[in-house]
């Protein structure tokens, strides 16, 4: 089953992924992401927020530090274990739940804000997920998606060639890959079975949010210069990170 395969893969990467976000917590990326979240969320405090696919808890911890009431979900128990430990270390009170993004056990119209980073590309059923987010959000609520066309190159040889070229350039600049060749192979095998691997985003997401009933969708095609360091900007030049803010 694809969902189980995804869960197994990311459980196996929980330790290394947690190390990555611990580094993000103590560099300029923390402030960069806080600024970006505030830009879209506004200056209100006491918002009720859901972090979808929290992983080791980076966004959840940032949002809790912004005086929001945060619930964070993930499908992977090992990721949640790391997230709970990281939240304790950061002194943040966060509710962590093991849950699917398309089936969250929270009341209708109970959230002000839903956020996700590097998660939506992994969804086997993205339309169901966006519909669920519409259900969960209050009438004035917003959904924030930060992601990229990470695996579009699997169906676009020209793009894959660009990705390979910039990967080599980044390695020459000092980039060290944080996954093994076996993990990379499994990651790509999973990606080939996922629908958003074959869609050009964020164009697809913009239309999907509108189809799910969101009244306004704001898109920023490239936020890499805001949240990536110099080597990452080089590495991800063919597939820059985008931002989507969908207002109910």
What would your notes on this structure say?
With 248 residues, this protein is α/β, with parallel strands linked by helices. The protein is 46% helix and 18% strand. The chain is built from 11 helices and 7 strands. Helix 1 packs antiparallel against helix 8 and helix 2 packs parallel to helix 5. The radius of gyration is 17 Å and the shape is globular.
Helix content: 40-55%
Radius of gyration: 17 Å
Shape: globular
Question: Average pLDDT, to the nearest integer?
Answer: 95
Report the count of strand segments. Answer: 7
What separation lies between the terminal Cα atoms?
33 Å
- Biggest sheet statistics: 7 strands, mixed
Spans of at least 5 consecutive residues with low confidence: none
Kindly name the structural category: alpha/beta
Fraction of residues in β-strands: 15-25%
Number of distinct helices: 11
At a glance:
The chain is 46% helix and 18% strand. It is built from eleven helices and seven strands.
How is the secondary structure organized here?
Elements: H1 2-12, H2 14-25, H3 28-41, E1 48-52, H4 58-64, E2 69-74, H5 77-90, E3 95-98, E4 111-117, H6 126-136, E5 137-147, H7 157-172, H8 181-191, H9 203-211, E6 216-220, H10 224-227, H11 230-235, E7 242-247
Helix pairs in contact: 1-8, 2-5
């Amino acid at each position: 089953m694809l969902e189980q395969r995804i869960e197994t893969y990311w459980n196996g990467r929980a330790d290394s992924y947690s190390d990555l976000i611990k580094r993000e917590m103590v560099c300029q990326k923390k402030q960069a992401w806080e600024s970006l979240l505030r830009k879209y969320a506004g200056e209100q405090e006491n918002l009720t927020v859901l972090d979808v696919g929290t992983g080791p808890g980076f966004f959840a911890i940032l949002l809790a530090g912004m005086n929001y009431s945060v619930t964070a979900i993930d499908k992977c128990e090992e990721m949640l274990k790391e997230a709970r430990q990281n939240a304790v270390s950061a002194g943040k009170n966060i509710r962590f739940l093991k849950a699917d993004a398309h089936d969250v056990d929270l009341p209708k119209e109970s959230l002000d804000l839903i956020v996700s980073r590097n998660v939506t590309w992994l969804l086997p059923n993205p339309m169901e997920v966006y519909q669920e987010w519409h259900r969960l959000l209050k009438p004035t609520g917003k959904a924030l998606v930060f992601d990229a066309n990470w695996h579009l190159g699997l169906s676009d040889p020209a793009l894959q060639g660009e990705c390979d070229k910039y990967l080599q350039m980044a390695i020459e600049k000092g980039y060290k890959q944080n996954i093994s060749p076996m993990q990379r192979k499994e990651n790509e095998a999973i990606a080939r079975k996922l629908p958003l691997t074959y869609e050009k985003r964020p164009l697809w997401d913009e239309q999907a949010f509108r189809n799910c009933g969101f009244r306004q969708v704001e898109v920023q095609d490239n936020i890499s210069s805001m949240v990536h360091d110099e080597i990452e900007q080089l590495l991800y030049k063919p597939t820059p990170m985008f931002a989507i803010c969908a207002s109910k």
